[in-house]
Amino acid sequence: MADLVRHVGEVYLDKVECMRLGRQPESWPPPGLEDEPPLQLLDRGYADLTGEFAARRPQDHTFTWYEPDQSVAFWIRRMAQETVIHRVDAELGARAEVTGIPSDLAADGIDELLVAFVQYGTTNWPEEFAELLKPAGDRLVSVVTPERTWALRLTSRDVRVDGAAAGSPSRLRAARPRWSKVRRRKSCCGCGAAVGMLPRPAGTRTRSRCCARYWPPAPSDIGRR
Length: 225
What we know:
Layout (H helix, E strand, L loop, with lengths): L1 H20 L16 H18 L16 H22 L9 H22 L1 H8 L5 E6 L4 E6 L4 E6 L5 H5 L30 E2 L19
Antiparallel strand pairs: 1-2, 1-4, 2-3
Helix pairs in contact: 1-2, 1-3, 4-5
């Protein structure tokens, strides 16, 4: 639990520095940060992060690792998702009841994963996914929840996403894997690569012309999330 608390605090402070510097910090974590008690670090990180958000408008320009959105709003969204998924981690680690995730936040988390991580990663760093996508061919796959659907076009080069509106898929959002915790697993065919960065949680269906197996890869740590 201490490692989880420390991680969240460090991520908060990293994003504070991104906004203050207008770039990614050159090295992270900085010397001495690991000596700070985890709860103290989390409290300080949260205070600094919310302070930065309060001092800026969502539309204000700032550095982010996601080139299409260089705004404070990106970090507000990213840190909301970072916070909610690690809150679930903490509840699971404590063997406590997992609190429900608001449906709009859950749906936005799935959209962020598909668009800002899967699509952006495969289109901007195709060499990292070449082996994964090589057997995929050209396929259309849907990620379906009760109230929202995302259509993914998989090729041997990249994954493109088209999202259709509205939703409350909080169970799917809670089951989303953390990128740093996932490693490659083999699949029997290329169809799983269509959503190669996703698990197969309860409540979702995949459509493809072959078996649909998911095996999340371990891409490089994009902007430390």
